Amino acid sequence: VIPFDIERVRADFPILDQEVNGRKLVYFDNAATTQKPVSVIEAILSYYRGYNANIHRGIHTLAEKATADFEASRKAVKEFLNASSTEEIIFTSGTTMGINLVAQTYGRAFLEAGDEIIISGLEHHSNIVPWQMIAGEKGLVIKVIPVLENGELDLETYESLLSERTKLVAFNHASNSLGTVNPVKYMIDKAHEVGAVVLVDGAQASSHIDIDVQALDVDFYAFSAHKLYGPTGIGALYGKKALLEAMPPYMGGGEMIREVTFEKTTYNDLPYKFEAGTPNIADVVALKAALDYIAKWGKNNIAAYENHLLQYATDQLTQIDGLRVIGQAKEKISVLSFVLDGIHHQDIGIILDQQGIAVRTGHHCTQPVMDRFGILGTSRASFALYNTTEEIDKLVAGLHRVKKLMA
Ligand code: PMP
């Protein structure tokens, strides 16, 4: 079942080779952020060591090399998403900024009082709050697609919410707290039938699922590099060219202009219109290294292996008395959220950490999901390509220890 040499993979991630609280680290917090392979770390180092320079306007050799690598990364993102042009790829600080950019530019320019935005009950706070902010300012109405008991979206209700008043629909490709993979193509098509534009939050999907923005016909797609073995604080927003051209800029400053006088300023062409100021050059360069790393093993191989880990973990954990898995969608990314009868998730997290096992506990920035299931939080184990079934066995043993200590 293992489509690659797991020991070779693990050797690429030096951080994994350490002890935490006297035990070999088991890192199961990949949905929060993945670890970084040596090639990504080296990309950052070699940029600062070898050719740090400001991009685009420089005529000297270092500036040209920095610009070339920066733009090569944009091309790599374009290919990663199968966008039709690099003009449609805007570098951001991550998914959060991508969503805020669309809410503050598209939302401000094209949405009017009484217009409806539909989001889903599975959203991360970053795909809720930006819409509430613009809705409050402009008198927009937010409708929410309910979540079914198994963690899937209630698509019947979604269809009944759609109307000619719906101007924008935003939902995630995959849920960070439950792992649910949403039927994005179907949901996009339904939104387009009523003329709404669609933003998909790809933060969790991008390292597990092949993305083809043209086949999906999605209007906006946002992701973060740090969820796919790249650095933190960098990501990209895809937008259809016609939409991006019609939208006003987000931030004003250098780089995003064509000509500035005190009377009138004209804006730069895409994608630079949306990239004010000196960008995070080193991390953009390293983002390409992360995409190359995924391509080296193959995203489908990675997904197949992670799915094997998810199945194994689900089988093993559900044998523990009093353990309940939250989120049993038919299609999931490798995220396993669970509660243990009568034991607070924080205690679970602390006792597992004492055994060197890193899981995430709490609401996972999805408080409405916790409210939906009547819980305060879950413990969440999320798997990446360097995890193993032996590590899952340690988690099972760790949870037995939690039960013993908390009994
Ligand atoms: N959406 C989802 C589904 C996420 O999991 C996350 C990160 N936890 C975000 C958005 C926000 O990503 P970032 O913090 O990198 O902007």
Can you give a write-up of this model?
This protein starts with 5 loop residues before the first helix and ends with a helix. The mean pLDDT is 97. It has helices spanning 6-11, 38-51, 61-81, 95-110, 129-138, 155-161, 184-193, 213-216, 241-246, 281-297, 299-317, 345-354, 367-372, 389-406, and strands spanning 19-20, 23-24, 26-27, 89-92, 116-120, 141-145, 166-172, 197-201, 220-224, 235-239, 257-260, 265-267, 323-326, 335-340, 357-358, 360-362, 378-382. With 407 residues, the protein is of the alpha/beta class.
Q: How many β-strands, per DSSP?
A: 17
Q: What assembly state would you assign to the polypeptide chains in this entry? A: single chain
- Distinct ligand kinds: 4'-deoxy-4'-aminopyridoxal-5'-phosphate
Strand arrangement across the biggest beta sheet = 4-10-9-8-7-5-6
Sequence-ordered SSE layout with sheet pairings:
Blueprint: H1 6-11, E1 19-20, E2 23-24, E3 26-27, H2 38-51, H3 61-81, E4 89-92, H4 95-110, E5 116-120, H5 129-138, E6 141-145, H6 155-161, E7 166-172, H7 184-193, E8 197-201, H8 213-216, E9 220-224, E10 235-239, H9 241-246, E11 257-260, E12 265-267, H10 281-297, H11 299-317, E13 323-326, E14 335-340, H12 345-354, E15 357-358, E16 360-362, H13 367-372, E17 378-382, H14 389-406
Parallel strand pairs: 3-15, 5-6, 5-7, 7-8, 8-9
Antiparallel strand pairs: 1-2, 4-10, 9-10, 11-12, 13-14, 14-17, 16-17
Helix pairs in contact: 2-10, 3-10, 4-5, 11-14, 12-14
The structure holds 4'-deoxy-4'-aminopyridoxal-5'-phosphate.
The site of 4'-deoxy-4'-aminopyridoxal-5'-phosphate has 14 residues, from helix 4.
